[in-house]
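Follow-up to my post from last week.
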Amino acid sequence: MTDKKEYCGLFGVFGHPAAVEKVYHGLFLLQHRGQESAGIASTDGKADSGAMKLHVGMGLVRDVFTPESLAALRNPRAIGHVRYSTTGSSRVENAQPMLAQYSRGQVAVAHNGNLTNAKLLRDEFEAYGSIFRTTNDTEIIMHLLARPSNGGLADPFAAVFDPLEGAYSLLVLTPDEMIAACDPYKLRPLSIGQAGNAWFVSSETCAFDLLGIKYVRDVQPGEIVHITAAGLRSSIYCHPDRIKPSHCIFEHIYFSRPDSRVFGDSVHAVRRKLGRQLAREHPVDADVVFAVPDTGNSASIGYAYESGIPFDIGFIRSHYVGRTFIQPHQSDRTSSVQIKLAIMREVVAGKRVIVVEDSVVRGTTTRGKMRALREAGAKEIHLRVSAPPVRNPCFYGIDFPTTDELIATGRTPREIAEFLEIDSIGYLSVPGILSCVSRPPSHYCAACFTGRYPVPIGQNVGKYAMERHQLSMF
Ligand code: SF4
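User reply:
Got it. Predicted complex:
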């Protein structure tokens, strides 16, 4: 799948002498969640010892940081961010974390997701004369925090998060504490880990495993976790009626690394089950099963197990080409796809092949791969997709093409197969996909397949904030 844009990755450390280096390595391991910009903010914990430190830049983690910039950041408390521009344009002003000075001190904020009431909140602030430096949602959080009305509250951050609507996982750093929070739907993953006396927060657990950090637990829907020198303190910041777990099912299909545990399940194990279910729903006689790497790998193994058809490697992916879909310009995407996948001719030539792909969105890049298989001598091509057809936009941080551009819009599976120039296509069903995860179906968002949005959109956006907070900014 190459037509989605993804969102962001967060990694934070509190109370480790090499916190900045740990964050740097954590961001490396979360690089698949965003490749446009990266940044780290850090503090020594002393409010009077000068400014918190910040380094952000455009590009990959390995390009943004140098030994010198890491040394300049060195502190025992740090948060970091890798970004793709789901909202806000692709420029360094929008890179995160964002650092601000306000009446109660300094604060750095890193955010993953999309606020559905961002425009409403921004308009309200601007009507009162506030000036925004960037176009991203994180600055709105800064403005909410700076409201004088938050001054006397026991937990001003809880008051900041409550009016937010949409999908957000957040990391906040002040001289005293690191704060992790999730929206009441927990659309995005966020986990807590520990090593010795140090605490860690990461978008995905793969970063814990590889850095020798023990996974402790996930941040819960609507939960705010304060991490201080005294340990963890947690509360639910929103009304209990608002808590409605709706985890993004695409994390399992595509976004997360297979070695992560997301929403309580191993991503690899879920993907393997998706492949098994796909084989049950769409069997076909063939000679070989292989994946479109890398995100189709686990599901293709499941398909081969279940069908009994031999598994092989049909495509070889170049590891020196980025994940093409997160490059912002169409011309970049097309050119890198052309050099990304090589075909194993001896596996394909003269064979009836089953190709397992994680999803098909626009279809143009998939058609290029299918044509290449045909040119390599494939006798029959049967595409099996470990997700249902994407038919609806995502308002929670995934930038799918417009509905008109989606291959599934107005086409039957047979017509899609014709467009892709293949012999057959089989999509996993919505019940099929939801049968492969361990939580009840009602605990997942599958709106891009079903059109049933768990978080208010359209006319209802901002209704909660308007009613409950009356958007009295000052
Ligand atoms: Fe994930 Fe799709 Fe829901 Fe967006 S609409 S949060 S991509 S499941």
